[in-house]
Every structure is written in structure tokens, then in C-alpha cells.
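worker-3 :: picked tRNA (guanine-N(7)-)-methyltransferase
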Amino acid sequence: MTTIDTSIRTFYPRRGRVSPLHEDSSARLWPVYGVALDTATTSFGRVAPLVMEIGSGMGDATAAMAAADPDRDYLAVEVHFRGVANLLRLVEERGLTNVRVFDGDALDLVRALPEASLDAVHVYFPDPWPKVRHHKRRLIQPANTALLRSRLVPGGTLHCATDWAEYAEGMLATMTADPELVNAFEGYAPRPEHRPLTNFEKRGIKQGRRIFDLIYRRTG
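worker-3 :: C-alpha cells ->
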């Protein structure tokens, strides 16, 4: 079994310029919607299927999906302050009760979750780490994929999307090789309607890049 080197991070932390609006949103709303490792699955106040959003960015897609899918809870994971603060603001503005936010490394959180506790894992446009020497930092690789899959319920889905063709090929090979994942389609999946079109994706399309979706299910 391939082991995970927990010293390798799949992200590069940065803060950047923060607006007063984001500072206010974080200060007011983190105590309401933010979660820690030990409260991630118990803070919704109900028992419902749980979706993990790894790398929720500015939160627009997460907020839109959660609003359209009120019967499931959404656990968003983001490491960048502006994204966390903006999602908190969107949750408040839209009155969403089925979203919680974790600020930190997604793999740390996944390791803390019980097995078979997630209905779906979404990995939309993760950092492709294009340089060969950085490929070890990619999120979708065998050991990480096995860890993510172990947290899915039987029949649960691992849905990835990328605009980086070489990474898409690696994702396809890695997920196909996992013994407990089965491709829901032959090869790449058609773009699902439930995945909102984000500004990041629009920019990729404008620049002529193809968007790749991969949807795999955990076998029972």
C-alpha cells in the first residue's frame, strides 16, 4: 500500500490583500459557520448526506450548489483567507443552513473523518502543479485517492474537474487504477449541470483550454 507523506502540502498558502468586508465577515461569521477537525461532521444540527468541497475558492460554486441541494450538507475546505471569508459572507447573505467551512489542509481533515462518512467529494480545479518536480504535491495521486475513497459511503462519488489536460490524464489513470472506484462514464464525464460555471472555469475556456470532468463511484 502506498503511504502518504504528510509533510508534503498540496497547496501554497497565501493571504494577499484583504478587504474590510472580508475581515468583518471572518470575525463575525467564523464562530457560526467555521468548524475544527473534531466538529466537522457534528456541527450541522441534523443527520444528512455530507458533501466535501476541497478547495472551495471564493465560495460561489459551493454556495450555489448548497442552495440548490438543501437535503445534503456541504463541508467546504479552503486554505486562503479571502476565499474562506467570502464564502462565509455568501452563506449569511443567502441564509444557507447546510454549509460549514474548514480553514486548513483538506487531507488533515479527511484523515480525521470516519470511514464511509461522505456522500461525495468534489475536487474542482485543484492546483495542477505543472512542473514535474512538483507533481508530488498534486492532490489526486494513488495514496490520496485511496484515502478520499475510504471516506465515501458505498455508491458515493468522487468528482474531479480540471482544465489541465496532462493532469486530467493522470487523474483518469489514478482513479481507474483504484480497486474500489468505478468510472461512472467511459473516460471523461460530460459536464454535469449541477456544477456551476465559475469565473476560473470561464477564464480557462476563454484561453482555449478544455475542461475535463471525472466522476467515479465507490463500489459497495
